[in-house]
């Protein structure tokens, strides 16, 4: 497509004069060893950019502070719809920063925060944001060390959320006790079309019960 541009330049950790061409709508920066300082410069640009719709900074070295920079930018940016921050060092504090922005952001439709050690605490922050967010449709949380408490937080959030369509919870530590929370919720939630809980610790008996809902994958 003529209108589609991708930028995959080198590391930007110290590039204070980094700019993004106004025609670029997809910015891909995976495997660039970007740290918090690099994200700071990207976020400064993102605040006022009106063309970028996808930002991929997955598989870097972004920590909670970098997540804070991105969250600050999300408060002002009005065009970004896809954000990939998977495989970084976000942790629970970073997830909280992103969650605060999600409460007021009205453009982001897909968030990939997978393969970050956010645990149940970080998941709780994201779940709380889902209660108020009206645009996010896809949330990827595979391999985030989520356990039963985190599963319950997400299930409770889905009681109120009416926009999330895909929730990926593969490769976590959810047992049958956590999975059961989604059973009652999905009876009333008709928006979610895919809940992936593959490669968790759910018993075959619980899987047999939940398998009646074709939206759930194990």
TrEMBL record:
PANTHER family xrefs:
RAN GTPASE-ACTIVATING PROTEIN 1
Query: Pfam families in the record, alphabetically?
Result: LRR_6
Q: Which UniProt keywords apply?
A: GTPase activation, Leucine-rich repeat, Repeat
Q: Which organism is it from?
A: Rotaria sordida
Q: Which GO terms describe its biological process?
A: nucleocytoplasmic transport
GO MF, any single term: small GTPase binding
Task: Report the protein name in the record.
Answer: Uncharacterized protein
Alphabetized SUPFAM superfamilies for the sequence: RNI-like
**Superkingdom of the source?**
Eukaryota
